[in-house]
Structure formats: C-alpha cells, structure tokens
Amino acid sequence: MKKLKLVFITFFLLVSFNIYANENYFPPINSQEWDTISPKSLNWNIEKIDELYNFLESKNSKAFILLKNGKIVLEKYFGNFTADSNWYWASAGKTLTAALIGIAQYDGLLSIEDKTSKYLGEGWTSLPTSKENLIKIKHQLTMTTGLDYKVDDLDCTKPECLQYKADAGTQWYYHNAPYTLLEKVVEKASNTNYNLYFNQKIKNQIGMNGIWIKVGYNNIYFSTARSMARYGILIANNGYWEDKDVIKDKEYIMQMLNTSQELNKSYGYLWWLNGKESSMLPGSTLVFNRMLMLEAPRDVYAALGKDGQCLNISPQNNLIWVRMGEKPDDQFFISTNLCNDIWKYINELTNITDIEYYDYENNILYPNPATDKLYLKLTNNLSIDKIKTYNYYGKLIEIIDIKNINHKDNVLTINLSSYSPGLYIINVGNTNYKFIKN
To answer: In the predicted model, what is the mean pLDDT of residues 88-103?
Structure first.
C-alpha cells in the first residue's frame, strides 16, 4: 500500500487521548433536540453575527449552521427555508459515497484496489480492454481515471462518453461521470439498492434524513441542513457516533481526508483539503501554488458542491459549519470562493488568530511539518529522562532516552527517518505536543 501522506486531522489525536471526550456532543437520533451554546459564552464577537448573516443572505443562502464541539452556536434560515426544508448537496454528496466505499471495503465487499470492470463488466468505457483494466475504484475516488474531459457531457455515464485521454493515475481532472458510476459499483458489490445500503450503513446510524435522487445522469443527495451537520460530526469524530463505530476502518478515514495522489495535493477521496502547498480546481488543469482557501485554517477539510453547498470542518478549532443555498451570484462561481469568504466572517466572529497551523505550539517543535529531523526545545527546568512518541491512534512508537542523546543549547534533535508520513504526538513530561511527518 502506498505510504500514507501527512495528516492534518488533529481531532483524531484528541479522540485517541480522550482529551476533549466530555466536550463532544452528539444530537440524539430520531429527535429534533440539539443542544446549543451561546456565542457570548464562548467570548465571540457577537457584533459580527449580523455581518455574517447579511453576507450569507446577499449570496442567496438558504441555511447556515455553525457548530462548536457538536453543539449549535448559530443556526439561520433565509426566506421560506426552515430547519425541515430539504436541499440538494450537489457534489458535496460525493463525500457520502467516499465514506460508504470505505464501509463496503471494511465489510469485505470490495477493495479500492479492484479494477472497476470487476463490478461494471468489461466495456463500461470505450477504452481498449488493456486501458480500461487500469482503472481502479481508487481512481474513481481520486478523480484520476484518465478519461477524456473534452467530451460534450462530463455527466454522461454511457460507454461512448467515456473515452481515453491518459492512463489511469497519470491525470487529475474533476470528471463527474466516473464518480457517479461508484453507485453501481456499490450496488453490485453489496447486491442491494444504493439508497438502502446507504441508509443502513450511515443515514440511520446517525439520525440523518434525506434520499438519493436521480437527476439526469447524476445521483444527488437531498436532506436538511442539520443532516449535513450530523454527517460533519461523524467525520470529525473519526467515524464514531458517541460509542457507536460507524466507519470502522480508521486507516481508510485517514486516507480519505488526506492527499490521495501527487497531481492535486488538495484532494483526498472526494474530499477537498486545505493547507496544502498546491491545488487544482474543477474545470481546470492548472496547478495553483497555494492552498485551497487562504482565509481558512490550514487543517480544514471540506465537502463542496455546485452553487455553494458547503460542509467545512476545522478539527483544530472544533468547528463545523454548513451552508446550503442557490448560486451566489450571476458569475461563474466555485464553491471554494464562497467558503473562503465565509471563513473571513467566521474568523472575525470567533477571534480565530491561529490560521497558521504550524505555529500554534509556539515553536516548541520545529519545523512542523518535519521531513527527516524534528527539533524539540527543552527548558532549563525540565527534569525528565525520557520522552515518548505516539501515532494518532495512541500507539506507542518510540521511547527516547534524553540522557543518552547529545543536545545543544537545550534543543533535542529527533530522527524521523523511520517514521511514516502522518500525524504524531510527543509526550514531554506532563505535556503532549503534536507534529506532522511529511
């Protein structure tokens, strides 16, 4: 299996070490009850709330929900839209399919390394058999099937619309049709209807409402804004709903929410990732040498859909927010633009100043992320003999005997050459620090 890439999912660590265990809230299933927390009690700048709402209304929003530790801080509906109104997720619903594929793989129904033709049969594309057989489920999850994007309809799932452009894994393009066909892959693997399998494995487990509906070639999820927020809570809690393990394959979750290939580093398994050194966008082959959303915390991962359907999660800040609505304006609009603008208002509201994820440990550990070596500042009054490193599941990786290591100017050098890429915690005395290995 390809080495796991660096992970920004700080919340996984917090779950592993039960640091905020008592703060995580899960709204009851089959109930309208949902605990709230006032922005004033969080010392937020409440004068900025109306500015956020005015901006959302000006962008044709229908619903907005902001959660802190799973509790509702803000919930606003516009026009005739209510908490009971359903709306389309558009491509934000792709992330539901990503989770469902992970569940199906854990259940032994499929492997993402399987070639797609195993489930769709030979001839599901117009490619020669040798080229078609290069396409795996993983390529559908990562938008790297290599199918031609210069066709009349990128939604068309008919074989004649699926033509060769490049070998699978060598091209990234936001091509809708190969994603849509994951529905048939799941149905074939599970031998059941897609809606039924989704309801059984995710929807009913966390109290969502909603349904998948065919719209042309596409299969689109419709639900309330609160249901989208519930899904955000599930993902932010590493696939758990309270003590119920809904998405059991934690390694898959890590892969899903991390760089999945080197072509577009801001893309996981149908999830968008912030904080990466470069990014690509739907409808383009250009690579931008910047992260996806400049105003958002670096650790954010997002479900994004047409016309500004947004689910954003910042594990570091324990924030989840949802925006549903119509197209923000008359111009061509990419959901990342709207999400980025919303983060501007959230930053002012919540007084988030820690946008630079790497600096929040006050440079106790540096560089962070690190590649081969990590430097740890040791204070003069630190009287410890050993430090310990753990992976984000809480598994002990290494015990380092400080007395046996030479360190200069109270700075300890830690060799990371044997560490796999990922998120780690280092225990120094009674304090835990987080670091990332590239």
So the answer is: 98
